[in-house]
Predict the structure.
Amino acid sequence: MDGQLGYLFAGFAVFWAGLFVYLLLLQARIRSLTREVDRLEGRLADTDAPTPQRGSPPR
């Protein structure tokens, strides 16, 4: 009986360790995607900025 409880504990330990590693990797991916979205939003804001037309005075 004690041997079976050892396997059960080992199985739970492996499961929780795997879940923890997966969540850390997921967090790193989300952080990377957030930085990429921020960078793209900055580029889009730069592109959307109005440029003065030739021959017209700046506002």
The chain has one domain: 1-44. The helical segments are 2-48.
